[in-house]
Amino acid sequence: MAEAKRTTIDAGEVERFSALAAEWWNPSGKFRPLHKFNPVRLSWIRDQVAGHFGRDPRSPLPFEGLRILDIGCGGGLLCEPMARLGAQVVGADASETNIEVAKLHAAESGVTVDYRATTAEGLADAGEKFDIILNMEVIEHVSDPALFVSKCSEMVKPGGLMFVATINRTLKALGLAIIGAELVLRWLPRGTHQFNKLVRPEEMHGWLADAGMKITDRTGVVYNPLADRWQKSTDMDVNYMVLAQRA
User: Fold this and answer.
1) Mean pLDDT across 208-233
2) Over the stretch 151-178, which tens digit does the pLDDT of each residue have?
3) Closest of 87, 80, 59 to residue 161, by C-alpha
4) How many CB atoms neighbour CB 198 within 10 A?
5) Residues pairing with 70 in the sheet
6) Which of 57, 162, 173, 177 has the smallest set of CB atoms within 10 Å of its CB?
7) Which phi and psi (to 5°) does residue 55 adopt?
8) What is the pLDDT of residues 21-44, one digit of tens each?
9) Is 14 helix (H, G, I), strand (E, B) or coil?
10) 55-66 pLDDT, tens per residue?
11) How far is 111 from 142, CA to CA, in rounded Å?
12) What is the predicted pLDDT for the residue at 31?
């Protein structure tokens, strides 16, 4: 009997986010935390890309000529800003419902994004290559994170970058990101995150190294309740972001 082909898709996770698809662009809805989180990750991505590729982050189109993949793009909350910065953007998600929502919103906004209902392994096996891959808040929802990192890394051009954001597997994260955010404050739908699928930085580092990627920067991200905003921090116990480069 032939061995089953490995996949990164967790059908339960796809179904969960598909059911919420209509909420993606509602800043006061079920994805409100992502809307709040977007400014800090966008500014970090912009500054890192500008520095690496020698671009002026204050210019109108600093990402012009760069090809970007947003893997697990959801409704396109990162794709549209990247396109507005001048990048050629491919947004990929395993949920066809999410992709349809993203396509509709991009059309209404007049933004050009190449949206595809597909997987990391589907794109990698087709030989797709990108200057930059955005792998943001996705890895904790896939079935095989090592395979996911490997397939994403395959698509990074030499000298290219991959940004990864996720949640650390710590008791602090259990208390704040799951019990606090989902059960007490109800910032996120119950069941959005499963503790055993959260990723420790050392696990992430190992998978990236195995895939030929070198980490060049990393930062924690914390919520400031007084300012009602997320900000970068040295504290990586809960949310953190990693930047890796292909040699």
Assistant:
1) 95
2) 999 999 999 999 999 999 999 999 988 8
3) 87
4) 20
5) 91, 134
6) 57
7) -105, 155
8) 678 888 988 888 889 999 999 999
9) helix
10) 999 999 999 999
11) 28
12) 83
String of DSSP letters for the chain: -PPPPP----HHHHHHHHHTGGGTT-TTSTTHHHHHHHHHHHHHHHHHHHHHHT--TTSS-TTTT-EEEEET-TTTTTHHHHHHTT-EEEEEES-HHHHHHHHHHHHHHT---EEEE--HHHHHHTT--EEEEEEES-GGGSS-HHHHHHHHHHTEEEEEEEEEEEE--SHHHIIIIIIIIIIIS-SS-TTS--GGG---HHHHHHHHHHTTEEEEEEEEEEEETTTTEEEEES--SSEEEEEEEE-
Q: Distance of CA 198 to CAs 85, 110, 168, 170, 207, Å?
A: 31, 36, 6, 8, 14
Residues 95-144: pLDDT tens digits?
999 999 999 999 999 999 999 999 999 999 999 999 999 999 999 999 99
Token readout for 135 is 């792998």
- Would the pLDDT of 76 be above 60? yes
Q: For residue 118, give both structure tokens.
A: 């597909």
Q: Kindly state the DSSP code that residue 40 receives in the 8-state scheme.
A: H
Place of tokens 């809805």: 29
Q: What is the 3 state secondary structure string of 126-174?
A: CCCCEEEEEEECCHHHCCCHHHHHHHHHHCEEEEEEEEEEEECCCHHHH
Report d(CA 195, CA 174) in Å as an integer: 7
- Which pair of structure tokens corresponds to residue 212? 């030929």
Tell whether the model's pLDDT for residue 230 goes beyond 80: yes
